[in-house]
């Protein structure tokens, strides 16, 4: 996949169904995390608060992965660990159709992501130790 400079370019490069998923996610995340910085980070759209990655999505082989960096702390049964590794606090969902996006859940997860955060930004500085920020 080519290097993208904008989230819009990333979304437009997807298949029609994946584009609908990505555009829905981008619009909902942008509205739910007003003031968050968004950019292409490691090749994928990611939103940050105070330099910390909060939420992003990426194209996998046959689906779009939506991931919240601190999602395991949201206490949401519909948001499983992503990847299933307890050293990190990420959780996410896999989407194959825009119809699989539960906007009510997504908006709730976005509200939680703004207040429940682990300091992923400084994980290297802390030698792999995560510290809860909020």
Description:
It is a single chain. The chain has a single domain, classed as Alpha-Beta Complex (Aspartate Aminotransferase, domain 1), CATH 3.90.1150. It is 27% helix and 22% strand. The protein has three helices and five strands. The longest helix is centred in the N-terminal third of the chain and has 17 residues, at 16-32.
- Relative helix content: 25-40%
Any idea of the CATH class? Alpha Beta
Strand content: 15-25%
Radius of gyration of CA atoms, rounded to a whole number: 14 Å
Shape: globular
Number of helices: 3
Strand order, main sheet: write it out. 1-2-3-4-5
Question: Per CATH, what is the topology?
Answer: Aspartate Aminotransferase, domain 1
Q: How many structural domains?
A: 1
CATH architecture: Alpha-Beta Complex
N- to C-terminal distance: 36 Å
Parts with pLDDT < 50 across at least 5 consecutive residues? none
Structural class: alpha+beta
- SSE string: HHEEEEEH
């Amino acid at each position: 996949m080519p290097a993208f400079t904008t989230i819009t370019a990333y979304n437009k490069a997807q298949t029609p169904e994946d584009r609908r998923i990505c555009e829905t996610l981008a619009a909902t995340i942008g509205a739910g995390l007003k003031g968050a910085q968004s950019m292409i980070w490691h090749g994928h759209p990611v939103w940050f608060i105070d330099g910390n990655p909060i939420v992003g999505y990426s194209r996998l082989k046959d689906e779009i992965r939506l991931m919240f960096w601190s999602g395991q702390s949201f206490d949401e049964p519909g948001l499983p660990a992503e990847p299933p590794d307890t050293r990190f606090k990420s959780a996410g969902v896999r989407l194959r159709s825009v119809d699989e996006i539960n906007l009510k859940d997504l908006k709730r997860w976005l509200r939680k992501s703004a207040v429940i955060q682990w300091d992923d930004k400084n994980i290297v500085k802390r030698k792999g130790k995560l510290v809860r920020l909020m």
